[in-house]
Write a structure and sequence with these properties.
This protein is 62% helix and 2% strand. The chain is mainly alpha-helical and 463 residues long. A hairpin with a 5-residue loop joins β2 and β3.
């Protein structure tokens, strides 16, 4: 008979290597903001004094030290696991399109408004992406990406519930509650954290036993936090993303087309409706959600951004070289009113466009579309997993309409999308099981489904 060989258990170095993406993710989701929240004024002043002697800020010094250590660990473990690495797994449309965009972004440093700042930020971008993507070159998955993300968010929800229950809300000048921040620096971050935790709980609750019980507890805590944060946008997007993902995947299966084509019908419909509408649809939608037709002042920022884009339409101002690049920068000298104090345009798409121009903007859109298209292959093998991956990707994609998350080296939401793109590489090439000769003693029995690494789970080689 033909049976299947059991794979050898991965060595310890491989297990650590596979954990590195989630170590980085946890640093930005939990530990870095929590350390900032727990710092007393005396400790913070002492740390700032030490960091100023090095010509940097406290947060930058801590973050860069962590990233340097993590990057060195990543490269060392990659070298130790080189027999298990297969870089062909990373030659997929999402990863390759991201690489092409990063090459163009690196080239934009040469014409950036502030070349030194742009170069430093570009190097930082590579430092955070390498530990996320490189471990996915291993031939078989050792860590379950979705479940590992769930545990990261479960810990974040637990800590934030404790913090919020012992925290006073931030008040508006009118005396109303503005929202709770948790251990984050702003309420929107707490709302996004809670919303993603709810999405992941939707997936975990589908599994029986203790996984379902833990998922229900995390979901209850996350619902409490999303309302405590008063983050209306996060709540709306959290409800929209899984519904749109489910409809897109169902229609994709029935029509036998990619889910990307189904999703592209949404912006096409919006463009058509805008052409035949007598009023601004963005203003109307904003008034329905926020009670404010300017998206809480965002349209004022966007008007300024479009004027600045017109000055360098094709190649932009350089990678991360528009905001926070000095007091004499165009973002300060040419901005009206309070816009000069902003740190971003509150739109990830506009920030990509103003920094890298039309060329970089479309290269980045190709990366987004390639990631959404790659989830179609996941659907053919595991529809439920495709649904949660598409839900997470859509949540980040939609949120970037009103927040700047793309390419941020401080925001876990950008890393979440990159992890979704990297996870799709595991479905690009499914290795065939290795046949071995076994003595025929009866019918071979299977006790579980085929693993994503290619070997059937629980297959017996003989009695």
């Amino acid at each position: 008979m033909v049976a299947f060989a059991r794979p050898n258990p991965p060595p310890l170095t491989s297990k650590i290597f596979a954990t590195l993406p989630f170590v980085l993710f946890s640093w930005y989701l939990i530990f870095r903001p929590l350390l900032g929240y727990l710092e007393t004024p005396a400790i913070k002043a002492s740390a700032e004094q030490s960091a100023s002697s090095l010509g940097t800020t406290t947060a930058d010094w801590e973050n860069r030290a962590f990233l340097l250590a993590l990057l060195a660990t990543t490269l060392l473990l990659a070298f130790a696991n080189r027999p298990r690495l297969n870089f062909a797994r990373l030659r997929t449309p999402p990863i390759m399109s991201l690489a092409v965009f990063l090459l163009f972004a690196g080239a934009s440093v040469t014409w950036a408004y502030s070349r030194e700042i742009s170069f430093n930020r570009y190097c930082l971008e590579l430092m955070v992406l390498t530990p996320i993507i490189l471990p996915f070159a291993m031939g078989s998955p050792i860590r379950d990406t979705v479940r590992s993300l769930f545990w990261c968010y479960a810990l974040a929800i637990l800590i934030n519930v404790i913090v919020v229950l012992n925290q006073k809300p931030v008040m508006t000048p009118e005396g109303t509650i503005f929202g709770y921040f948790g251990y984050f620096g702003f309420k929107q971050y707490l709302g996004q954290c809670a919303s993603v935790a709810i999405l992941l709980s939707f997936y975990e609750v589908l599994f029986p036993g203790w996984r379902r019980f833990v998922a229900i507890l995390v979901a209850i805590g996350a619902v409490f936090l999303v309302f405590a944060s008063e983050s209306k946008g996060s709540l709306v997007f959290m409800l929209v993303a899984p519904c749109v993902a489910g409809v897109a995947l169902v229609m994709s299966g029935k029509l036998r087309v990619s889910a990307l084509l189904v999703l592209l019908a949404i912006p096409a419909t919006y463009i058509a409706a805008s052409m035949f509408s007598s009023s601004n649809l963005v203003n109307r939608i904003s008034y329905m959600i926020y009670g404010d037709s300017t998206l809480t002042g965002r349209t004022v920022i966007w008007d300024f951004i479009y004027r600045e884009i017109a000055q360098r339409p094709w190649v932009g101002w350089g990678f991360r070289s528009f905001w926070l690049v000095g007091n004499d920068a165009p973002s300060v000298t040419q901005a009206p009113y309070w816009v000069k104090h902003m740190t971003g345009s509150h739109s990830g798409y506009l920030d990509v466009r103003i920094e890298t121009g039309i060329i970089g903007y479309w290269l980045f859109l190709i990366f987004i579309m390639a990631t959404l298209y790659a989830i179609e292959r996941v659907r053919r093998q595991d529809p439920l997993r495709a649904w949660i991956l598409l839900s997470l990707a859509l949540y980040v994609t939609i949120t970037n309409l009103i927040e700047t998350l793309w390419l941020s080296t401080n925001d876990p939401m950008w890393f979440l999308f990159v992890l979704v793109a990297a996870e799709t590489t595991r479905y690009s090439r499914v290795p065939k099981p290795i046949p071995v000769t076994a003595r025929r003693q009866g019918p071979m029995r299977k006790s579980g489904p085929i693993r994503r690494g290619g070997l059937p789970q629980g297959v017996r080689t003989g009695r």
